[in-house]
Amino acid sequence: MPYERDNIHRLTPYTPGEQPQRADVVKLNTNENPYPPPSAVLEAIRGVSADQLRRYPPPRAQQFREAAARLHGLSPEQVIATNGGDELLRMAVTVFCEPGGLGLGETYPTYSLYDVLAEIHGTTITQVPLEEDWSVPEEFASRLNDRGCRLALLVNPHAPSGRREPLDKLERIARTFRGVVLIDEAYVDFAEADAIPLLDPARGLDNVLLLRTLSKGYSLAGLRFGYGLGHPRLIETLDKARDSYNTDILAQAAATAALSARDEASKSWERVIAERARLTAALRERGFTVAPSQTNFILATPPAGGLSAQAMYRALHDRAIFVRYWDAPRLHDKLRITVGTPEQNDALLGAIAEVSRAAAGA
């Protein structure tokens, strides 16, 4: 006899990318930064004392909030620290969506965790398909309004395509939508611009939340630290649903140090952006269709007449080259490839040439 709620009994959990333990794998499947975090991060972790470990951490990570506020030109009251960006998503669904109601609106495709969080909460999901060029339809906000949605989740730059929506379009969505718009900026460190201007009080928007993570740009995916930015009233409301001591002392020290070392971290962003351009060009030369990206990954469609995306994914996997594949509408013929180091990307390109030759000679 199941003891869980019916919606949990029916739930299909989130499936994370494979995390191999083998050292020989070229890991291009979960969008980690291939370069190490700033040196100040490791120094900060080493600087945590035994007495700090003995005590509970500052519950709201005040030092980090102040550092993030300085970085973004905001007040600490506009910042909330979270256990990874995913915790902010969970908090937003909990706080703004009604169980059993038409609470969550999103595009399709998008980050698949959104659906899992909504299903856990018992909230109905409204999906609006993206245009052929992966852009958000102009009627996105009005369609969510028609369905009574309370929260709109938009990942920008988009995952898994890499497209970035311009600021004026995001502003139109926020002004039209009658609920909270959470813009997931997990990949913004690799983009040309961010949505911070939407938080300027002069714009008069009190329904915008921005999600940031240190997993990508700051090379801290193993640490689990993110944060939210928004109107003080939204932050105060989210704080009510925050787990007690949700970020530990090691994470707080490392995250604060990471923001202070932004200049060092940004050098890795520049390297990723340069490799993104090189990898995109190389794949296009080999007949792939590659969507323009402002992230640390690319979405690539193998050339017609050769191996299917699924077959190429499996062949690469057999050669210890890990990329991401989904058997899902609009994605089943594509591979999402994390931008690695030059050596990793060359290994990928060599493996693609090898499996393509093998398939052609079969």
From TrEMBL:
GO aspect biological process, one term: L-histidine biosynthetic process
Source organism, top-level taxon: Bacteria
CDD domains the record matches: AAT_like
Pfam (any one): Aminotran_1_2
Record-listed N6-(pyridoxal phosphate)lysine modification sites: K216
Pathway stated in the Swiss-Prot or TrEMBL entry: Amino-acid biosynthesis; L-histidine biosynthesis; L-histidine from 5-phospho-alpha-D-ribose 1-diphosphate: step 7/9
Single GO term (MF): pyridoxal phosphate binding
Gene3D superfamilies per record: Aspartate Aminotransferase, domain 1, Type I PLP-dependent aspartate aminotransferase-like (Major domain)
EC number: 2.6.1.9
Keywords: Amino-acid biosynthesis, Aminotransferase, Histidine biosynthesis, Pyridoxal phosphate, Transferase
Cofactor section: pyridoxal 5'-phosphate
Reaction it catalyzes: L-histidinol phosphate + 2-oxoglutarate = 3-(imidazol-4-yl)-2-oxopropyl phosphate + L-glutamate
Annotated Aminotransferase class I/classII large domain residues: 24-352
Assembly notes: Homodimer.
Similarity field: Belongs to the class-II pyridoxal-phosphate-dependent aminotransferase family. Histidinol-phosphate aminotransferase subfamily.
Protein name as catalogued: Histidinol-phosphate aminotransferase
